[in-house]
Amino acid sequence: MKAKKLSNPLKKLLQQKKTTIGSWITMAHPLIPQILAPAGFDWFAVDMEHSSIDLGDLLGMIIAIEATGKVPLVRVGENDPCLIKRVMDAGAYGVIVPNVSSVDDARRAVNAVKYPPQGQRGVGLYRAQGFGRYFEEYKRWLDQESVVIVQIEHIDALKEIDEILTVKGVDAFMIGPYDLSASMGKPGRFSDPDVVKVIDRIMASARRHNLAAGFHIVPPDPKLVKQKIKQGFSFLAYSVDSILLGEAADNAMKGLV
Predict the structure, then answer these.
(1) What is the C-alpha to C-alpha distance for residues 55 and 9, in angstroms, rounded to an integer?
(2) How many helices (H) and strands (E) does the chain have?
């Protein structure tokens, strides 16, 4: 990563709470973002939690996303400082950290991304730092441009939601609707009054603290995206690569019937 490329347009968009739409990458092939990018996505999140993508696949995926001019994010499999450090060293522009249910979880995520004094990340000289050539530039970029997104996906997060959303270094949050509803014993029941009430409480906290709100809309239905935008969500994950592929195939074949 050369110094002249060290910019992250997503950072400012999150700060301004302008709508951005990305998608989830679960298939470990660099052609996937190349195929999807022309549709107009702003960012792609490589999913290392619910896929077979591992660190050996990740570098090529980040390079492929950068080549499209889109922002490469990584949804790490766990809130682990060693994993997050390696993901960032590979050149991710930021991480989406799953199952953040406490203020300590949120602080641990920020600490894993940022160098001291803001965080506790160990310093290495790999691709993100230009293999040592651009360490000073990367150090400034990391402080000013990297993003940390925490996933709110368990009912326990409600106990400390205000504290979580005000942790310094957290740029946005994303609601994981399946896990959130599952933690309430109602998996996938997004219109259940209790689930709706919890999401409303999270959004009320986001408004109080002026933080960009995210949501993962899994079905590839534009109406659902527009609905979430009206509700105040601006950081939107729209479907998944495999679902988009399957829907396109289904629609193509239906036309033959």
Answers:
(1) 25
(2) 11, 8
Please name the residues in contact with 201: beta carbons below 8 A apart, sequence gap of 6 or more.
158, 161
Which amino acid is residue 228, in one-letter code?
Answer: K
Domain parsing of the chain, residue ranges: 3-254
Catalytic residue among 50, 154, 209, 216: 50
Q: How far apart are CA 133 and CA 188, in angstroms?
A: 48
How many other C-beta atoms lie within 10 A of the C-beta of residue 251? Answer: 9
Q: ∠8-211-179 over CA atoms, to 5°? A: 95
Peptide bond into 81 cis (omega under 30): no
Contacts with 19 (C-beta within 8 Å, 6 or more apart), sequence order: 229, 234, 236
**β-pairing verdict for 172-175 and 20-25:** unpaired
Q: Domain 3-254, CATH 3.40.50.10800 — does that match?
A: no
CA distance 43 to 232: 19
In the residue annotation, 50 being an active-site residue is answered as yes
The confidence band for 156, taking pLDDT boundaries of 50, 70 and 90, is: very high
Residue with tokens 């399957």: 246
Asked if 128 and 146 touch (Cβ cutoff 8 Å), the reply is no
Work out the average pLDDT over 224-242.
97
pLDDT at 192 over 90: yes
Given a cut of 80, is residue 53 above it in pLDDT? Answer: yes
Residue with tokens 């570098």: 59
Given a contact cutoff of 8 angstroms between Cβ atoms, the answer to whether 65 and 33 are in contact is yes
